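Go through this one:
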Amino acid sequence: QVQVVESGGGLVQPGGSLNLSCAVSGSMLSFHHMYWFHQAPGHERELAARIRNDGDILYGNSVKGRFTISRDNTRDVTKRMLYLQMNSLKPEDSGVYYCRYVDSREDRWGQGIQVTVSS
């Protein structure tokens, strides 16, 4: 079973930056995809960024040009790190950010981490 744990959230002023981390561990497959989702208060969860197994990256329209998804380059299939560098933050970026791991056997979500963008 795969475990997913996010960290790095908090309070930041508009225009500021945060870097979220996601620790994925357990019996991962070498072929997998990883995601960051954002859920603003009163809204549905939506894709912030995705990185496929082959390194292909996709961003949600609201974060393009401001957020950067990345992962470590380890070949270790028992532990992997995923990151989301968030720059030029806006109040509408506030909410809970979820990390997600998907392979052919599992679809695991983290518990989420709160990000608040406010002056």
User: Anything to note?
Assistant: The mean pLDDT is 95. The first strand starts at residue 2 and ends at 7.
